[in-house]
Write a structure and sequence with these properties.
- This protein has helices at 7-14, 17-29, 34-38, 74-78, 88-101, and strands at residues 63-66, 83-86.
- The chain has a domain at 7-90.
- With 122 residues, it is mainly alpha-helical.
- The longest helix is centred in the C-terminal third of the chain and has 14 residues, at 88-101.
- Bound molecules: zinc ion (ZN).
- Zinc ion is lined by residues 33, 35-36, 43, 49, 86-87, 89-90.
Length: 122
Amino acid sequence: MSKFETRAEYRKLYKSARWKHGRLAHLAVEPLCRYCRQQGITNDGSLTAAGLRQADPRRCFLVVDHIVPHRGDLALFWDRANWQTLCPDHHDRAKQREEVRGFSVEKGADGWPIDPLHPANR
Ligand SMILES: [Zn+2]
């Protein structure tokens, strides 16, 4: 089985020791929001995407995000090259864009969209 089908199944993965340890290891390597950093903002989870102090303590954290949405694909889920650190603001925006379009518009170092579901990759 390399696929899992239900939200409940992957909710469980996010609670697993493997994810918790992997997440912490990722945050040790990439402790700042990647999108904020691209805009010159050093955000360790204490700022908004605009670089202002985050007033809501429930939004003071960092997300380990899947660059290419895993959509139940376990190989993508566990592929650390597919993980990136985001602040909650950027995570929400990235996820909203994906939900509207059905794919991520994130580009790789070569400037090509990395999501296999992006029209350029179909
Ligand atoms: Zn950010």
